Amino acid sequence: MKVQLVKVHGSGNTFYLYEALYDDKLDYVNMAKQLCNPSINGGADGLLLVLPSDIADAKMRVINADGSEASMCGNGLRCVARHVCEKLEIDEAIIETMHACLTVRKEAPIFEQLPTYSVEISPISFELSSLPLFLEDKQELHHERIAAFSEDIPFTAVSVPNPHLIGIVEKKYIENTSHQQQLAAFLNSDNEYCPNGVNVSYVLPISNDEIFVRTYERGVGFTNACGTAMTASALISTMENIVSGNLITVYNPGGFVQCSVEQYNDKWKLSLIGNATIVGYYEIEYSHNKIEFIDCVITEEQVQYDKCNIYTENRLRSFTQ
Q1: Among its keywords, does the record have Amino-acid biosynthesis (predicted)?
Q2: CATH class label, 2-118+275-320
Q3: Which residues are documented as binding site?
């Protein structure tokens, strides 16, 4: 069976996108595992499925590199947003995800001519049961040190709806990834705290409206960027008065995004704004659960994103030296 794919990325978080039908007989888990294998055409972080929806303009499913399914993916949703909006020739759409129907829209570029989209990040919960995360008798965890995790890093737990553990750290924890690697690997293995695993992000404050975020993503490992993690990190940084204003620039190993964080009474409204880059168009033969790449057409869009990366690297160098 010949299958048409689009390779896309948001902030260096790379996916294959496939417009699926309800009657497809494809094994998406097997397909994702093969497509994401780094030895096969460079691999990817996941497979985005764009499906018909009865309640929105389209539906998104996200299959991680290990075959697990994510409830939400902010970087992936931006790429789906672009695909749907361009197909329907509209600037704003509603995308059905596992837990909510979310608004997406085309935005002015955040860097030169970089195709840019914003996506709503919702729902938000601080209840540990929503992750789930089990910590003695605690119902929530807000900017608190947990000895089993670290003696000096304050953590906050939040689901958006993916589960996140957000630590505000000093520069030494960004320069040396060993602590984050050990903690995240532990919490994503058989453990008493997070039976379903959790995304672990370390956040370095930069200025009153800038942060750096590195994420160990559940089902993926260290990733160039995780959209929900960046948005959750911007939210926690706002709540803890680490940053001010409604628009936070979030740098990551794969580039940067902007996160809009607004509060209305006791409710938070979050939006993730960033690139939705098309790397190339691919045709594969998928037969007997085996993938063979037949043809590809590479776009010029990555050239523009590489220029954005140079800007990001120079900005990061200015606060890591």
Answers
A1: yes
A2: alpha beta
A3: 13, 64, 74-75, 162, 199, 217-218, 227-228
The reported pLDDT for the residue numbered 321 is 56
Helix (H) or strand (E) holding 153: none
The answer to whether the 2-118+275-320 and 128-274 domains have the same CATH topology is yes
**The pTM is what?**
0.92
- Of the CA atoms within 13 Å of residue 251, those in its CB half-sphere come to 22
Residue 273 has pLDDT above 80, yes or no: yes
What is the pLDDT, as a whole number, of residue 37? 95
Catalytic residue among 194, 226, 259, 308: 226
Q: What is the mean pLDDT of the chain?
A: 94
Catalytic residue, from 36, 73, 79, 259: name it.
Answer: 73
* CATH number of 128-274, picked from 3.40.50.620, 3.20.20.70, 3.10.310.10, 3.10.180.10: 3.10.310.10
Q: Is 226 a catalytic residue?
A: yes
168-194 tens-digit pLDDT: 999 999 999 999 999 999 999 999 999
Binding-site members for substrate are: 13, 64, 74-75, 162, 199, 217-218, 227-228
Q: What is the rounded average pLDDT of the residues 101-124?
A: 96
73 is catalytic: yes
